[in-house]
Design goal:
single chain, 30% helix, Alpha-Beta Plaits, VC0802-like, seven-stranded antiparallel β-sheet
């Protein structure tokens, strides 16, 4: 089980992030998780949304450069040490994590951690074998 992430490439200019959120709002898209990494010249906005196909179309029509990536969305207990246990699983299995970010959106007492894994299929298998819950939407 995996989830679709939209990456939006943005110039590092005032107002660009606001333009993206306006496009999504106008299209009736709800943000579920969001992360941004930037440099002096550009940023990569990573989004999990309520309808990735509709969001992708709206963003592309507005002139944004986008990409879809498969990521793993793992549901963990919202308490100290939960993420450390998942990280230990990946470390023992030698699965490299390219990046991660989290959302508290989901069930009460749970958090959803979004993982971009270097070996996606191997990482998915490890999560499933460990008995952790993965989500395909939230």
């Amino acid at each position: 089980m995996e989830i679709k992430q939209i990456s939006v490439f943005l110039e590092n200019n005032a107002g660009r992030l606001g333009e993206v959120t306006k496009v999504l709002a106008d299209a009736g898209i709800n943000l579920r998780a969001i992360s941004i990494a930037d440099t002096a010249d550009f940023g990569i906005l990573r989004l999990i949304v309520s309808d990735h196909q509709k969001a992708l179309l709206a963003l592309q029509e507005a002139g944004f450069t986008t990409r879809i990536t498969n990521v793993a969305a793992v549901e963990i207990e919202d308490r100290p040490g939960s993420l450390a246990k998942v990280m230990e699983l990946f470390q023992k299995s030698q699965v490299n994590i390219e990046y991660l970010y989290a959302s508290l959106e989901g069930k009460e007492g749970k958090a959803v951690v979004i993982f971009k894994l270097q070996e996606h299929d191997k990482g998915l298998a490890i999560v499933q074998e460990s008995g952790l819950s993965m989500v395909d939407s939230f």
